[in-house]
Amino acid sequence: MEFKPRIVAFLCNWCSYTGADLAGTSRMEYKPNVRIIRVMCSGRVEPTFVLKAFANGADGVLICGCHPGDCHYQEGNYRCLRRYLLLQKYIRQIGIEPERLKLEWISASEGKQFAELVNSFTEKIKELGPSKIKDTIRTFA
Amino acid sequence: MEETKPKLKLAVYWAAACGGCCVSVLDVHEKLFDIISAADLVFWPIALDTKYHDVEKMPDGYIDITLFNGAIRNTENEEMAKLLRKKSKILVAYGSCAHLGGIPGLANFTTKDEIFKRVYFESESVVNEKNLIPVPEYKAEEGTLFLPSFYNDVRALSQVTEPDYYLPGCPPQSERLLEVFKAIVSGAELPPKGSVIGAETKTQCDECIRKKTENKRIKKFYRPWEIKDDGITCFMEQGVLCMGPATRAGCGYRCIKGNAPCRGCYGPPPGVPDPGAKMMSAVASIIDEKDPEGINKILEDLADPAGTFYRFSLPVSLIRRKIL
Amino acid sequence: MKRITIDPITRLEGHGKIEIFLDEEGEVKNVFFQVPELRGFEKFCEGRPAEELPSITAKICGVCPGCHHMASGKAVDAVFGLVPPATARKLRELFYMAHFIHSHTAHFYALAAPDFVLGPGAPPEKRNIVGLIERVGKEIGTEVIRQRRIAQEIQALLGGHQTFVVMNIPGGVRRGLSEAERDYVVEKAKGFVEFAQFTLKIFNDFVLGNKDYVDLIVNGPYKLTLHSMGLVDADNRVNFYDGKVRVVDTHGNELCKYGPDEYLEYVAEHVEPWSYLKFPYLKKIGWKGFIDGQDSGVYHATPLSRLNAADGMATPLAQKEYERMYSTLGGKPVHATLAMHWARLVELLYSAERCLELAMDPDITGSELRAEPGPIVGEGVGIVEAQRGTLTHHYWTDKKGIITKANIIVGTTNNNAAICMSIKKASEGLIKKGIVVDQGILNMIEMAFRAYDPCFSCATHSLPGRMPFILEIRDANGGLLQKIKRD
Ligand code: SF4
Ligand code: SF4
Ligand code: SF4
Ligand code: FES
Asked: pTM value?
């Protein structure tokens, strides 16, 4: 059976979400494996959300925010960047391939870039294969 | 006529524990006599003669309160947890090991095979030409000898049975135990099942006496030995990792009093499912840098994020063991 | 074949279990002392920053956490290539003396004394600390709890956390002692010395004053002829915090003396499939099995072995007591397992005297608490004497000081083989064809391993002071023949 990666994408409402919308309305093709979660700002993406997504079976997690300097809340995307880099360090240590987590800046007009990003990320996850996280961490209580 | 309240039946049991939790019960010192006068200890391997068989024979719900300490590391720990659940009205996960998996839970960074390999084959002092390892059943010339089976994962009590309450700490501060005990004896209404008891709802930082500045940012992290601690300023503001922001208050910030940063044995504050994730947010907010390379350079100085953020809580965290 | 199972904490506890096999005649065929527990610290310390290990490894044992904190602290100093300044070194030793006072006091009163003061054959319900208090007076019970509390308060003063101190940092300590605090410690230490002397007096009156006990110590089924290990200072006197490990043979002649970083040349560990705990032995002699005597590689590391391995005590009152002990028991070395109790009290007095000495030392309130960090060496060994034996921590790190490997030989582990053999000796001496195994015999067997104050079973630090006990005699198929329970 072909492996269909399950990807969770946290998209900032002000930019990336609109970008994704644009990709949709202008019928740019991107892989249908993405569960999109809209957040008010990438700075609102708590590390907990990312880890929960992995624990619940996501094969990959994508976070998108406004380009540096464009965040509606000034500092949100920088905070997101720092969290993301720290999360990378952590997931590497706990044995999750760092490639399964990705952060990109996508503006409201970058529908094409968004579609490309989703496609390339999906390819990457396909290469990595299904995540073993959910099975490994299961307890049989 | 005066009604005499029947004495409470109390049990204390240790699973994969260090003994420190049992000692913390003794560390109420002179107050131990108060406990003994209000409760009959019906089962406490450290101190009493009651046996496994005797516990099995008790009717279900016979014990009023069981303080269960230690993590679940092998078959025997799990069997005892389930037995005591059945026999106890109130089952308390007592101490970090039972509550969160504790220090033994750090073994979830590795596996049973790796541990056995290190301890019985690779250890520099071991001489083991026949490559022997302990086995659950060993047929000696004289008869069969049994050992409990060692699990691949360490679990907290809640991952094998359902505790009623959680009393945090490594070990819990003895005064906290006394408070909880007195409340139960007085017949006061108990908090809802599943609650953390014997601790605050605030964070360690809320109670800590070290000096804090609003919105302080830092440019570098230090290992504790790399700087001269001034003994006054918040550790995080000095660039030394402290688990205070992701830790529940209640211990009386006892490590900080000894000039050491908190390592989180009281577990996460209310509403925080994963202390490490909370700590990652806290660390991310204190870093004064916007450039990815610059941020990575600062993060390089965090020597062991997983082992520090989850020092006491790996088995109950969202990614509860190393993915292999 | 019959089988006797002594499961101190009946199969549920898992910290120590004894299986005695009897042949058809009812004679002891073999004895197994099993430790059904392993947590794997050696492995999961890998990846942790070295400076965190003194706190992490303290969680090996909540009864003697201070020993691990110290051995680990010293190994970490070595990893970082640091030598703590005098003040830091003395503060650590001061803490350590409080730790010894705390532990030795608890062991003697809660555990050992009931057997001697009330007698090994006293009814079990009396043979505990409550019975002890009835016999010797109530003030003593209160005093024991008080002294133990004070020792703990001193630990908290020096190390923050009352149980798991956070004192050590690479190259020193995190907190100094003020003049006022020193005065407090001096006053309390004087109390410790008095209390230790008083404890020895109890031992003297109740144990040594009774011919039967002295006879039991010297001639009972408790003699095990082993080599003796202990840490000594430059003058070969007992030291708990620092020095070289000296081993004397069964005749008292020096077999070896080594510094911490040489331990691998002298000590090795044997594995058996029926216990999670390894069996250390002297490497140069080799593992010859569970046998005692001059040719065996088995040694012990206990209060008695420490006294055997040294030429004396470093404080005056303890030295006197040391001399008295050896002259009473017929000279050095002593191989009577039960003499460990006396040796422990000699050590209690030494700890108290040394505590006072250190508290009055002008350096103790010094302000130089840490050595300046330098280049990381990447490997280090730390050795201290834990209450229950020589404790060795050995770490390897990468160039950033992150642990890549760790090896730990815990105090009690040293005595694993010795405990097995002591139990066997006692069983052989007590369980004979035609003898009905009863409570008294049970307790006499129990006394054999209780002397070691073994740490797998923190039952040895219990207040009521009784080792939980159930004894089952089974046939070879596991059918229950006889069951004795001590209530
Ligand atoms: S919580 Fe701490 S004190 Fe209690 S058993 Fe675990 S390690 Fe020991
Ligand atoms: S981070 Fe640590 S030192 Fe700072 S306030 Fe919080 S608990 Fe105190
Ligand atoms: S300061 Fe932190 S690590 Fe220390 S006892 Fe308190 S909660 Fe536990
Ligand atoms: S509003 Fe888009 S990242 Fe902050």
From this structure: 0.92
